[in-house]
Amino acid sequence: MPFKMILKELMDAVPGATGAILADWEGESVEQCCLYDVFDLKVIGAHKGILLNLMKEAHQKMDAGELKHTVISTEERHLLTGPVGADYFLVMTLDKSAIIGLAIRHFEAALARMYREIY
User: Fold this and answer.
1) pLDDT at position 82 over 70
2) In CA terms, which of 8, 68, 76, 94 is 20 to 30 Å from 35?
3) Which residue, 111, 116, 106, is CA-closest to 12?
4) At CA 33, angle to CA 6 and CA 111, rounded to 5?
5) What is the per-residue burial (b if ≥16 Cβ within 10 Å, else e) of 16-30?
6) What DSSP letter does each residue of 44-106 carry, written as one string?
7) What CATH number did the domain enclosing 7 receive?
8) Which strands make up the sheet holding 29-34, listed edge to edge?
9) What is the 8-class DSSP label of residue 1?
């Protein structure tokens, strides 16, 4: 499965992208690509997976529809997280200069490609 290629293409398509990780439902890394310490990306990925699951549960209780992705922005970076089916999720880190709308468009395309590869 070309997960590494999808992650690399995602990062190349978005100026300011610093990392992308595909993880399973337990937060374990399946594949990753980043410009910094891979251990840090794995920790970020596992943490964002926990938050994603909590948000999915909240959306189900509110009957708000299926969660497509989340965006968390801090002083230093943006973090995108989205489910890939029921068993996997994708996390992307970006520096503050990244254009978030462009990132979301490419992130959603990568989510769809990952889904087709897995399921």
Assistant:
1) yes
2) 68
3) 106
4) 35
5) bbbbbbbbeeebebb
6) HHHHHHHHHHHHHHHHHHTT------EEEE-SSEEEEEEEETTTEEEEEEEETTS-HHHHHHH
7) 3.30.450.30
8) 29-34, 17-24, 88-95, 77-84, 70-73
9) -
Q: Is 40 within 8 Å of 114 (Cβ atoms)? A: no
| % of the chain exceeding 90 in pLDDT | 89
pLDDT average, residue stretch 69-86: 96
Range of the domain at 79: 3-118
Joined tokens for residue 26: 């337990």
Q: Does the pLDDT at position 23 exceed 90?
A: yes
Please tell me whether residue 18 adopts helix, strand or coil conformation.
strand
Per the structure, the count of domains in the chain is 1
